[in-house]
Amino acid sequence: MSDAFRVEVAHPAPTTSPGGDPGADDAAVVVVRMHGLLDRSATDEMAGVRARLVGSGLDVLVLDLADVHYLSSTGIALLVGVLAEARSEDIEVRACGLSDHYRHIFELTRLVDLMTCFPDERSAVAGVAPVADG
Amino acid sequence: MAVTGSAPPDRSLDAPRRRRTPVLRVPWRARTVPPEPSQDPPPTAPDGPPQVDIAPHDPVLAYLQTHPDPIDLDQIKLDTPGVRALRDAGVELVVPLVSQGELIGLLNLGARLSQQEYTTEDRKLLEHLAGQAAPALRVAQLVREQEAEVRRRERYEQELQVAQLIQQNFLPHALPEPAGWRLDAFYRPAREVGGDFYDVIALPAGELGIVVGDVTDKGVPAALVMASTRSVLRSSASRLVEPAEVLRRVNDVLVEDMPPNMFVTCLYGVLSPDTGRFRFANAGHNLPCVQTADGAIEPRATGMPLGLLAGADYDETDVVIGPGQCAVLYSDALPEAHGPDGEMFGFPRVVEVVADRGRDQHMIDQILTALDRFTGPTWEQEDDITVVTLRRRDGRASEATPSDPTEHATGDVGRVLTRFRVRSVLGNEREAIAKVGDAVRRAGGLDLGPERTAALTTAVGEATMNAIEHGNLADADLFVHVRVAVDDDALVVRIADHAKGGPVPTDVAEPDLDAKLRGDQSPRGWGLFLMESMVDDVRVHTSPERHVVELVMRREDER
Prior knowledge:
The structure holds two protein chains of two kinds.
Chain A: E1 6-10, E2 29-38, H1 43-53, E3 60-71, H2 73-88, E4 92-96, H3 100-108, E5 116-118, H4 121-126
Parallel strand pairs in A: 2-3, 3-4, 4-5
Antiparallel strand pairs in A: 1-2
Helix pairs in contact in A: 1-2
Chain B: E1 23-25, E2 51-53, H1 59-66, E3 71-72, H2 81-88, E4 93-99, E5 102-109, H3 120-170, E6 181-188, E7 195-202, E8 208-215, H4 219-239, H5 243-257, E9 264-272, E10 277-283, E11 289-292, E12 295-297, E13 316-320, E14 326-330, H6 346-355, H7 363-375, E15 385-392, E16 415-423, H8 429-443, H9 450-471, E17 479-486, E18 490-497, H10 513-518, H11 527-534, E19 537-542, E20 547-554
Helix pairs in contact in B: 3-4, 4-5, 8-9, 9-11
């Protein structure tokens, strides 16, 4: 397992989810899977993610952090940058794959107010079964 | 027909019994792994055929391995105990079970019920059957070996934890601080915990009994002997005055119950803080190393290790630790550490390091730095390392500012779990995270669960990053010093830098997420907030030369 940060962008097939958001079927969803250390070393990759959002016409951005082994305050700043971009592009952000520790950090930093947390990528893409807050 | 190796009977071999079929138990795999001695013989039906054991070195096994076809016992022209045993059991035809060139069992057949010879057809069928059965039997054997291995490993891990727990419980959580002195201890267990221990015992008239010892052997037995040695020492030290007398008494008590092949090396001394006099006796342990005006000496006292011989006698020596000087007591793992080329660190190097006063470092740090440099980064610690230092302050004002930036002049209590330093290069905070996490997990018995440990290491990462970036302005020639210590109440991580970037802001407001999102505030600025949120307390000490950030985790199960 390499520590170098990288992202992998996936376009999930449209899903039909009876319990999901109305219109979720045809929403434009992109999944960004993050791997490695989300700290200063992730700056360029995260700037790339941010740039991708501009004018993308996306509805939903799913951030999968299941394979992030370290999140520093710099990493949080990078996430905030992506969230700010998403907000100005009117893209809904969902997060998944957070360990309890990182979830706790997301709560402390109030990042959870800006993205719904899901247990895994599938539920995040479908937009159902969010993790209960708190 | 039944077949056994040491594996459970294989269902596929439970064919209808048309012939009398004695079971042969071959000590299989004689070539490599001997069968587990504790293993019960495979179950046989009470009315089943007799079992035949053949010793692993019986020549018949080598013969059968090279003749994998069914063979009449009469044709084997060997007279060995194995062949005789087979004959006695009424075996007429032997079918070797060979898997990948290795004999793993035998199919043994008695006379046909019809009393006729085995036909060529029969033999073909049996050979075919053996070809099928052998791999299946081998798989069963491997599964069993695998299971036994897993059990062994689990047991080993459990024992490791118990040993650590005993060890941690009997090491002092805090050292006394006699006026004008500074006592420090460093203990780092090897993965397979050895039997190192140290202790400081308060004696009448303000004197202190100082103990450093090492039990031969490792794991739980060593930890138990260490625990009992410690209590015998404590009770003897409080009743007797002279160190030699104390060791004599301890030896006589221990020798009674010492397990065979175990003994304890131990140095016991009495420190008189007023005069600096340290008189000690030695039971086969390393000599102390004491700084003098022009170097360092190893005052000598000899004696047998404890627990070997009843009535052993011990020398006593005394030495005076002068103002501003330091005595170092240590365990074997220090001089016996190996460098990458196999060379040992050795006593002369210990003396050299202790004598060297040119460094702007705490003595324990100085020793560990020298050791690190000698062993190189890939070294796996071979044994527990214990170092105890007795430093007499020199009474001058400068003594109030100790050289190690993670040290405070007073009020330092607790056991140091680790000390290290990282160069001020961004990214090195991850090294700090790994080392602190490792020290905390290794220490055991701290009541700090995985969640709290994760929170602590996140805070360590943030504090170290700040120290690298702001405190030392990412100057690679400067170091960030980290020290992890624990006392009865709390675990404290101290992170010190050279304060090159001005004072540390102390009031931490929650960053305004909305302002950051609007772009009115830098997206950064989470570090201090995160640190404050992760640990129970953050204390910042600032002076023109250094910042020290203390991260405090209280030792309760849950907040």
